[in-house]
Amino acid sequence: MNKRASLLSLLMGVLLLFIWELSAQQVSELILPRPLAVFSVLWKGILDGYFLPHILTTVVELIIGLLMGGFLGVLLGIIIGESPFLKNVFSVYIVISQAIPKIALAPLFMLWFGYGMMSKIVITALICFFPLLEATASAIQHVNSDQLTLFRLMNASRWQTLWYLKFPVGLPTIVQGLRVAVVLSLVGALVGEFIGAKQGLGALIIASQGMMDTTLMFAVLILLAILGCILYGLVNILENLLWYSKENKNEKN
User: Fold this and answer.
1) 51 and which of 43, 45, 79, 146 could share a cystine (Cβ 3.0–4.6 Å)?
2) How far apart are alpha carbons 80 and 85 in whole angstroms?
3) pLDDT tens sequence across 53-83
């Protein structure tokens, strides 16, 4: 991001805070608390460690769920990308699994896996699964035909073609799927915590709603926004590292 864009982004943030402050002056704090009150609660909660166990719970749920869903998504994406027959076999069931809203399945997961962390992890994994499956299958299927012909002429095996051609070439597409999955992983963890949890940022939002504490609710929303930005930034760093590694490899060759 260049300096001009960074400055414009900063000015937009200041403008939004100004509009928020003006709007909060016109209504009750129960409906819209002032920014200063929200940041005061947020800062105090961070300093005294009130938010820490909730943040850690949500982060653990989304990381494990993302790893599980991501692994299964990439694995099945490779399988259906390599085999049109298996794609036809699995496609209907994959679409059905995604057509059902996850919030409708959450109560069932609570019954099956309990009200602990496992049910939230399963919901998160299910939500993260589809973006990586679609991205991986698309990456495996859409490979340059000339490159495939070259590998066939070199008598490369199916595994060698996958590992040395399809997967490296499709990696940018897979990373794009990962970017979507990372954002959705936070949604998955929160959906599970909304249904039933004693700890986590989603549980804290439900608790603040029950206490009619709108200021606390806004503070948690800011924490969620920060957490989402951090996760998104980590994926961007991973993508930049992959591009850097690829460029270095090309220069050596």
Assistant:
1) 45
2) 8
3) 999 999 998 899 999 998 998 898 888 888 8
pTM above 0.85, yes or no: no
Average pLDDT, the chain: 83
pLDDT digits (tens, 9 = 90+) for 165-180: 787 877 888 888 888 8
pLDDT of 250 reads: 54
C-alpha 85/C-alpha 76 separation (Å) is 13
Structure tokens at 151: 């590998």
d(CA 202, CA 119): 14
**3-state secondary structure string across 219-237:** HHHHHHHHHHHHHHHHHHH
pLDDT of residue 197: 73
Chain-centre distance of CA 86, in angstroms?
A: 27
Question: Burial of 114 by CB count in 10 Å (0-12 exposed, 13-18 middle, 19+ buried)?
Answer: exposed
pLDDT tens digits along 189-222: 888 888 877 788 888 888 888 888 888 999 999 9
Cβ proximity of 136 and 74 under 8 Å: yes
